[in-house]
Specification:
Layout (H helix, E strand, L loop, with lengths): L9 H10 L15 H14 L24 H8 L7 E2 L3 H13 L4 E4 L13 E6 L5 H10 L8 E5 L18 E4 L17 H5 L15 E7 L5 H14 L3 E6 L11 H10 L4 E4 L2 E4 L20
Parallel strand pairs: 2-8, 4-6
Antiparallel strand pairs: 1-9, 2-3, 3-7, 4-7, 5-6, 8-9
Helix pairs in contact: 4-7
């Protein structure tokens, strides 16, 4: 059981898991300084109140780490009303999942704002930006037009837990995106002739697998497995995407731009959506199409619009 900032080194975690020294490795999702709050609570619970420790089987008691605030459809509608936002409503998460899967499969980048926010530094499918991992141009598009950072920066895959071994050399669940493991050999593409002599940019953007948007230069990936028990809506989205495309993997990156925290409230999500190259925003049962929104004025800043409590 690992904690502390060192436990956020996903490459080292993957190597430790690969070494087979331990039967299981558990890393709580907020393994950095923020996790001290969790440790303090457990310390008081076990020592001061003398409460026993109890196991929960395969799923840990954090249940996916969705411990932050959530917002109802009514609260979302009130929050975006001052922006004159335009949305299409869908009835129920199965319809939302199916519609969103079609958007992603068509090459769109989707802001995904659902349920309670994640606890920890990783976006785990509650405040995420989702895209098609099979798209060879998606890594550069996400970096330059949305995350506003260097085009070569890697992205993480989110995959159905039951299908993870179809794509990655991962034997254990990884619900908190804490392990870097290799992409399966069968999914890799061979290096081109003269690869070592190519310019750096060509090396960085070479398609290394049939999931080029999430495959690192060393054929690895930082993997999140999705379980129906902890995130039924994201699980349903991946199932819908799999039915459409035969692929159970999406790009999952945090819903923010460089230098800003992950969005928390509906106002923050809408602002980030409008200020970047995202194509659609899915909040609750609402789908926002960028092309149908009023022209965005940069004067719409956080100071002018108080956030919901």
């Amino acid at each position: 059981c690992m904690a502390g900032g060192v436990a956020l080194n996903c490459v080292a975690n993957g190597q430790l898991q690969e070494a087979g020294i331990f039967d299981k490795i558990y890393i709580q999702p907020a393994a950095g300084d923020a996790g001290g709050a969790l440790g303090a609570a457990y310390t008081a619970f076990h020592i001061y109140y003398n409460a026993p420790r109890t196991g929960t089987g395969q799923q840990d008691a954090l249940q996916g780490s969705y411990l932050g605030p959530a917002y109802s459809d009514t609260e979302i509608a009130i929050a975006v009303n001052p922006f004159n936002a335009i949305w299409q409503a869908e009835a129920g998460f199965e319809h939302i999942a199916a519609a969103s899967a079609k958007l992603v499969a068509a090459g769109n980048v989707v802001g995904w704002f659902q349920g309670r926010m994640e606890f920890g530094p990783r976006a785990l499918g509650a405040r995420s930006i989702l895209a098609d991992a099979r798209n060879p141009g998606m890594q550069k598009k996400l970096n330059l037009k949305i995350k506003q950072r260097e085009g070569f920066r890697p992205f993480a895959p989110v995959v159905l837990a039951d299908d993870v071994q179809e794509y990655f050399e991962l034997q254990e669940p990884s619900p908190y995106m804490q392990f870097v493991k290799p992409v399966k050999e069968s999914r890799r593409l061979p290096m081109p002739a003269g690869y070592d002599d190519l310019p750096l940019a060509d090396k960085l953007y070479f398609e290394r697998s049939d999931l080029p948007a999430i495959t690192h230069v060393d054929y690895s990936a930082r993997i999140q497995t999705v379980h129906k028990e902890t995130n039924a809506l994201l699980w349903e989205l991946l199932q819908s995407f799999k039915q459409l495309t035969g692929c159970a993997v999406l790009v999952n990156t945090s819903f923010n731009v460089r230098g800003e925290p992950i969005v928390n409230t509906p106002q923050e999500a809408y602002r980030c959506f409008m200020r970047t190259g995202m194509d659609y925003l899915v909040m609750g049962n609402f789908i926002f199409d960028k092309k149908k929104q009023p022209a965005w004025k940069e004067a719409n800043t956080r100071r002018q619009m108080p956030d919901l409590d």
